[in-house]
Amino acid sequence: MKRVLYLIVDQLAGHWEESVKIEETNYPPVNVKGYHELGLIPNFSYLIKNGLWVRRPWNRGKCDTSHGMKYLATGSYSDEGCYKQGKPWYLKVKEGFFEFAKRYYKEKIEIGVFSNSPWLARGYFYTPVSMHGLVSGHYSDETILKDHAFPWMEEVVPNWNLVHIYFPNMDSISNCPSYGKDSDPYSSKHSYMLFLDKLIGDIIRFLKERDLWDETYLVLASDHGYHLGCSVAAGMGVKTNNWCCDHPPPWDCEVWDFEKSKSTGIYSGGPRRITFILSGGALDKIYRGETIEEAEIIDVVPTIAQLLGIPYKCEGNSILNYRKSSD
Fold this sequence. Notes:
By secondary structure, the chain is α/β, with parallel strands linked by helices. The chain has helices spanning about 30-35, 40-50, 70-75, 95-105, 140-155, 170, 190-210, 230-235, 300-310, 320-325, and strands at about 5-10, 50-60, 110-115, 130-135, 160-165, 215-220, 255, 260-265, 275-280, 290-295. The strands form two sheets. The protein has an eight-stranded mixed sheet with strand order 4-3-5-1-6-9-2-10, sandwiched between helices. The chain has a two-stranded antiparallel ribbon with strand order 7-8. The two termini are about 25 Å apart. The mean pLDDT is about 90.
């Protein structure tokens, strides 16, 4: 059995409407595709160039949350168990993939989860083995990675097969500029994106230096993007493209012309623009450097299930099958 390292970065937009640019710069709003094409994120680019990259993945769910963590945990768009204020969302929910994987493989699989407590509930990333619940806002992405996940993977359970790591900090870098010259990672999404790229580099080096790279699939995904330069942002009183407005509903919106103070009619949908990259040394050479134009958030889990040979049933489809069908 190979290893899968499943990294989720909260509020990491994977792509953007091409017509939107940040005023007085040549930069798009912070997103993986745009920054990769500009050569600003070399470690993300390394994964893309040596992996199977979905150029435009989407979160098309209608659940009463813009997080999408439910979809990344189950591979289905079911509203059952969605996170809602005042609702017992942790009861009577579909078994999550991680719980199913442990029940299916039992002692043959070693699983570790490093996340925040809301996403450790049943139906999300619950597993009846090793869960590490870290309080959002009190642990940085770097601390989660280097002080918790890395030591566990190297010293505590070195024979791990499936590890999930959740990075919450990009989600907190909101209601702020998209682009800023300040190098402080928390001053703008731009600065944090550059810092995040360094953490991706740390993951790559960790796996390579411990001879784990060639036997590991690295799956990088996000739950949602954010509003910027759109009708929702304009409704909040924003006057520029260079301001991130988090991800409240409505999640479908249009690109806004701030000079004319009206919608362009072009679809924006920033909160629906997610990230999905499949990379790692274990990935078959026939997939490396390949791209898929579109896929959905519910396709992440079935892709992991196929890599590990786990017969998990869900609504999504493995992107390995997407590629085969497009040849």
